[in-house]
Specification:
Blueprint lengths: L1 H24 L13 E10 L2 E9 L6 E5 L6 E6 L4 E4 H4 L7 E5 L4 E9 L6 E12 L5 E10 L1
Parallel strand pairs: 1-9
Antiparallel strand pairs: 1-2, 2-7, 3-6, 3-8, 4-5, 4-8, 8-9
Length: 153
């Protein structure tokens, strides 16, 4: 009878150790496997003396799909500045956004392109354009990615 109890204990311990061993083999993702943050690019072209075409691109640099969570319907912030770094235009001040949390799916390596035509005061002289996105990737804290470039004539 004692040998049945001992064999039962050995079997239970073996199952427990096998379960622990399985958990150790399921290692968390390494830095190489981690999801990279969304990339942002911005470019701008002066169409006329007071009109600018801004192009913002959001790109998933990962081969796997990525879901972004935005706190509103706004996907990016856009600013146009002059040579003295004075802000001539701010995208969020000219737009109305829904105040609802929204998610957007990006396929692996997918780029989404947004175009904004901006009319500036006639006396302004834009030289720089910058864009940033505030987003929250699942399981990561809110972060900002920023890009800037010279305005093309």
């Amino acid at each position: 009878m004692k040998w049945i109890i001992r064999i039962s204990c050995v079997c239970v311990l073996t199952l427990i150790l096998a379960g622990c061993n399985q958990q150790e083999q399921e290692k968390p993702a390494t830095q190489d496997d981690a999801v990279q943050p969304i990339e942002i690019k911005v470019s701008g072209k002066q169409l006329e003396s007071n009109k600018v075409l801004a192009v913002v691109e959001l790109k998933n640099p990962n081969e796997q799909a990525l879901t972004l969570t935005f706190p509103t319907s706004q996907r990016f912030e856009l600013k146009i500045k002059d040579a003295d770094q004075k802000v001539l235009y701010t995208f969020s001040q000219e737009q109305v956004f829904t105040q609802a949390i929204e998610q957007e799916q990006f396929k692996g390596l997918e780029t989404k392109r947004y175009e904004v035509k901006v009319e500036l005061p006639a006396s302004s002289h834009p030289t720089r354009i910058e864009a940033m996105t505030i987003r929250q990737v699942k399981d990561q804290s809110t972060s900002i990615t920023k890009a800037e470039s010279e305005l093309l004539n």
